[in-house]
TrEMBL record:
<protein>
    <submittedName>
        <fullName>TRAP transporter solute receptor TAXI family protein</fullName>
    </submittedName>
</protein>
<dbReference type="InterPro" id="IPR011852">
    <property type="entry name" value="TRAP_TAXI"/>
</dbReference>
<keyword id="KW-0675">Receptor</keyword>
<feature type="signal peptide">
    <location>
        <begin position="1"/>
        <end position="25"/>
    </location>
</feature>
<dbReference type="Pfam" id="PF16868">
    <property type="entry name" value="NMT1_3"/>
</dbReference>
<keyword id="KW-0732">Signal</keyword>
Amino acid sequence: MLKKQLQYLILLWLTIVMPSTLIHAQETIDVGKTGWDVKRPVIAGACDTGCPWGELGDFVQQSMKPYGYSVIICRNCNRSYGPRLVSTNDYPPPLDEINLEDGVNVRVNARVDFGLTSSAMLSSAYRGTPGGKEGYKNLRLIAKLEDPFYYLIAVRKETGIKDFSNIKQQHLPVRIVGADAAMSTILNYYGISTDDIKSWGGKTDVTLDEAKKGNFDIVAGFLASPALNPESSWWTTLSQKFDFYFLELPENLLKQIAQQNVDAEIVEVHYGLLKGVNRRFKTLGRSGEAVFARDDTPEQAAYDIAKAIDENRGALKWFIRIYTYDTKTVWTNFGVPLHPGAQRYYREVGYMK
């Protein structure tokens, strides 16, 4: 009898516990010889579950096949890793919990040759930090693709807040999701400090998990979009679950925030972008995802990437985010030099004079 019970418990473990263990299994794989010389370059991308640099990695991979390239995508070379890994021709980092949450459980054991990141992050990585970290001066732009998103501030309708001055005047104990540099500028503009909010009984470090449970009053951030990629999906999730009023900021305040972000510009949000956006109003927009490489990338390879992306640009509209290709901006990225091979292509087709 005891033996049968033991067998049953083992079977139960195999059917219930084992599958969840396998989901989180991590693996490093050897992908063989890689590099430009064998037309098997490794690209710094991201997850294949809707991450922008992941789906753009798929796009680059498919676009380069007709030119004889077998691009290998590093799915955990995302966040701030890409520019450094490309610049130093380094190996991908170890997998971490964030990778596993995004469904990435495989790490390629190969040096990274080129990459994808946001236009702003590429510019920052190239320039470095004033008085701090040196820039990666060997990075070169191949192509900049447009990918617009917005800075939005939404308040729960039941709070009655129509302006940040309401918070100041009434000492409202607001709970804020997205207390970043932009929010600090906004609070300072209205004469509010984080200590003020705490003293009024509020909170400025509300997590998304708390917000999903309704424990928040204000949500703000630069990644607003109706797309359900991991970075933006919470805007759709929260706006569908709660009734929002979207705040407008004075134009001089928008200009202050824009000065803090190399890729920001004043734009207009249109009716219906998200549930609760029931009018047009001005805010800040940012756009740009960059395909980049090192300065020692063979000129022909850079030319081939630029050409392949251009010739297959029609495929960009079929991803979760609707990317676009602008012939006036594809060859420029906030001070990052263009690779000579890419430049040769853009001059040949007349995009550059």
